[in-house]
Amino acid sequence: MNQNRNTSECDSHGSVERRLKDLRDYFSRVLAVNAEHNDRSILFCIKRRLHQHRLRDSITPEDILHEAFIRTEKALLGGEPIKNIPGWINRVSLNIIREKKRQLQSHHRLKWKVNADIRSLSTPSESDTFIELHAKHIDSLWAAWQQLKKSDREILTLKHVHKLSWKEIAAHLTALENKKVSHQTTRKRGERALFKLRVVFFSSIEND
User: Fold this and answer.
1) Sign of the Cα pseudo-torsion (117, 118, 123, 124, in order)
2) Whole-angstrom Cα distance, residue 24 to residue 29?
């Protein structure tokens, strides 16, 4: 019985190793300088989809392919019985592109929402300046956003993009940080994060 089990485990391990080798060989062929048309077709497909989703200026086909490789490798190591690697890569690549599109849309929504929130916290003088220089300083706003701590960005995203209540965000942080976080504390953290964003943004405008 034990011998049969060991034999089965060895066969399974050998099968995974073979599939991993097939995956690496496939990617080597796709990325080869002298790759044949059939092997390069996945890159053409990814390029077309990036164009369709208006992402061609944000990410390259090679970036999508590399991420698809990593996800496929993890799936194989996790025991996923992938028989058709090119077909699997094609589906994974499409899923990645859709994810990137959703992320980009969320970033755009967040930028405009933060714009409005900064304006609501501004003095009349600052508000006039914001309206006048809005288009010019949208990049400054995004740079200010990147300067926030990851946890601050997380709270603002949950609040202004996903429209969660402070209690819902507190529950999310409690699970994430593995300690009790009250909605009052969460609200204060969010308000401080928005205030820091406002300060950095207007400082960048004054320095221009």
Assistant:
1) negative
2) 9
DSSP code string of 18-83: HHHHHHHHHHHHHH-TT--HHHHHHHHHHHHHHHHTT-TTT--HHHHHHHHHHHHHHHHHTT----
Q: Which two tokens stand for residue 53?
A: 């989703």
Look at residues 153, 141, 146, 135 and name the one whose alpha carbon lies nearest to residue 192: 153
pTM value surpassing 0.85: no
Best CA proximity match to 148, nearest among 116, 91, 195, 93: 195
Percentages of the chain per state (helix, strand, coil), in multiples of 5: 80, 0, 20
Phi, psi (deg, nearest 5) at residue 32 = -65, 145
43-61 pLDDT, tens digit each: 999 999 999 988 888 888 9
The residue among 173, 148, 94, 71 whose CA lies nearest residue 165 is 173
Which residues, including other chains, have CB under 8 Å from residue 163's CB and lie 6 or more apart? none
- Higher-confidence residue: 194 or 97? 97
Rounded-to-10 torsion of CA 205, 201, 115, 175: 170
Helix (H, G, I), strand (E, B) or coil at 87: helix
